[in-house]
Amino acid sequence: MPNEIARMFDPPAELLLALPEHKVPLEGGNRESQNDVFALIRFGDQTCAATIEGKVNEPFGPTVGEWLVGPSQGKQDRMGQLCGLLGFEEAPPSHIRYQLMHRTASALIEARRFKTDEAAMIVHSFSPTRMWFEDFASFASLLGVEAKPDQSNTVILRSGQRLRLGWATGNGDFLAC
Description:
about 180 residues, 6 strands, six-stranded mixed sheet, alpha/beta
């Protein structure tokens, strides 16, 4: 496990399992949420189901406002599921990035499936300028979290489920490959 990801958890953090391009079914539509990495992580006496979203300079896809233009019943169903999992009473503001919602929902779904102590959605950013951090921080604020680079925060959702959100700065040496 990369050190910057391990630092998102209380030490010692141990990677139990990592699955690249892990797909998690969501309601509505016909596409799953495809996570860059799904991981089971052990730290202390706790286990976490984590989705890791790797980024360099690309954005987190369309905003909620862009994604919901002319919404089909499938999109409405999916937004309802995402809002329910995240504890939102209604769709978030239009500037929020949709991908952050479904990647976080994926972690919550898998945490329930694997009966872990918590879920986590970690952005592993290799951008030297932290491109798109503001989008992540806006999303995190909806959940009552003040996001800061290279640290994680934990929140208890309305469902009682524990969620960790973090932004980990990746080792820039990997950009030279």
